[in-house]
Amino acid sequence: MTAWFAAAAGLLLGAGLCLVGALRGAAADRLVALELAGVVSTLLLLVLAEAFGRGTYADLAVVLALASFPGGLVFARFLERWSEPDGGGPG
Amino acid sequence: MITQAALLAAGVGAVLIACVGLLVFPRAADRLHLLGVATSLGSVAVGAAVVAREGLSSTSLKAALVAVLLVALGPVLSHATGRAARIEALGDWRPQPGEEVHQQ
Q1: Which residues of A touch B31 (CB under 8 A)?
Q2: DSSP assignments along A2-16, one per residue
Q3: Which of B4, B12, B59 sits opposite A10 (nearest CB)?
């Protein structure tokens, strides 16, 4: 087992911790856990590409880094509008 | 080899500390600091480990691109999320009456 597979295992453990964090708290608290999970997954894909020796797999990490950003922004914007007094949400 | 392992350990260690902190800090405002740890320290260290192993190649360029993207976009995400968390908690992002505001 190389250092890269060990690093991937560590990042996988971190993704599991993010999942636990995303199950508890208010919506905004969970959103931060989701965003952290996106960062962890991006680095996991990068490390796995290096562990398997397939450079093309690193494309997935680039795509996830680009895609998780607008995803987090959309969730944050939705949360704002949902929480406004006339936003239709519980607040 | 030692450099790669050290950078990798530093990056994964930073990310794991951030993930464990997620269970320690229950509030979004505290958790956002952990997101900063992962996007700044973690991504740069892991990206540097890949660059140290690969030298100059397409894979190392992708790793550098991932690190730059996470470092550049992380604060934007933190700002938007912090604003949303404040609006969710207080109904408005502005300082509320009775709230202590630190003036320059």
Answers
A1: 21, 29, 32-33, 36
A2: -HHHHHHHHHHHHHH
A3: B12
Structural domains in chain B (count): 1
Distance CA B12, CA B19 (A): 10
User: Would B101 be classed as within a structural domain?
Assistant: no
Give the range of the structural domain holding residue B25, as residue numbers without chain letter. Answer: 2-90
pTM value is 0.92
The verdict on residue B96 lying in a domain is no
Residue B99 falls inside a structural domain: no
> Distance between CA atoms of B45 and A49, rounded to whole angstroms?
16
User: Is A29 inside any structural domain?
Assistant: yes
Q: Check CB contact of B12 with chain A, cutoff 8 Å.
A: yes
Identify the DSSP state of B57.
Answer: S
Q: Would you call B8 and A7 a contact, using CB atoms and an 8 Å cutoff?
A: yes
Q: A39 lies in which domain range?
A: 3-83
Ordered per-residue pLDDT tens for chain A, 91 residues: 689 999 999 999 999 999 999 998 889 999 999 999 999 999 999 999 999 999 899 999 999 999 999 999 999 999 988 887 666 665 5
ipTM confidence = 0.91
Structure confidence at residue B38 as a pLDDT band (50, 70, 90): very high
* Residue B60: alpha-carbon gap to chain centroid: 21
Give CA–CA dist B27/B86, Å, rounded.
Answer: 11
A40-60 pLDDT per residue, tens? 999 999 999 999 999 899 999
